[in-house]
Amino acid sequence: MPFTIEQVKALVREYPDFPTEGILFRDIFPIFREPEAVECLVNHFAEKIRSLSASVDVVVGLDARGFLFGPLLAMKLNVPFAPVRKRGNLPGKVCQASYAKEYGLDVFEMQEEAVESGQNVVIVDDLLATGGSCKAAEALVEKRGGNVLLNAFVISLAGLEGHKKLHAPVYSLIEC
Question: Strand order in 58-62's β-sheet?
Answer without folding.
Answer: 94-101, 104-111, 81-86, 58-62, 120-128, 147-156, 170-175
